[in-house]
Design brief:
The protein has 141 residues and is an alpha+beta fold. It has helices at residues 16-25, 55-65, 102-106, 132-140, and strands spanning 4-8, 32-37, 44-51, 69-70, 73-74, 76-79. It contains four helices and six strands.
């Protein structure tokens, strides 16, 4: 059984070594870290996978990093889902023998983006209270 954490909403500058140093600073145990990159540009896609030796370590990492503030964003951490098959005939609108139905081919693609939600000002500042993790990260930069 695999114990892997998905760590998302990362800034593109975050490297494998950055994540390893964050984990080590928090005394969290891990086996490996993989930052997912665009194969053509080698730019980070904004997410990573952290392999852990057991479910307890996986849950500790999720609790530590899920919704942790970093720059102007909140990180997301949860148990990674197994990869989906990329075989022929798999995916939305795929019909018999991998044929795409007319309705799927004609369906409009949804655009990404939209309005950014702003958090209200709180007594601890516009982004709310900062964590020790965020303060240490700010010092490192």
């Amino acid at each position: 059984m695999s114990f892997t954490v998905f760590l998302g909403n990362l800034p593109v500058w975050v490297t494998k070594d950055d994540i390893k140093s964050w984990l080590n600073a928090e005394n969290l145990v891990f086996d490996d870290v993989k930052v997912i990159r665009n194969p053509e540009t080698q730019e980070s896609k904004g997410f990573a996978f952290i392999d852990t030796p057991n479910s307890e370590e996986m849950n500790l990492i999720i609790r530590r990093f899920d919704r942790a503030p970093l720059e102007d964003r909140m990180l997301r951490a949860n148990q990674a889902q197994p990869p989906k098959s990329k075989g022929p005939g798999v995916g939305p609108g795929a019909g018999p023998a991998g044929q795409v139905s007319r309705t799927a081919a004609a369906a409009p693609r949804r655009e990404r983006g939209g309005r950014k939600h702003k958090r209200p000002n709180t007594p601890n500042g516009p982004q709310g209270p900062t964590s020790a993790f965020a303060e240490e990260l700010a010092k490192a930069l």
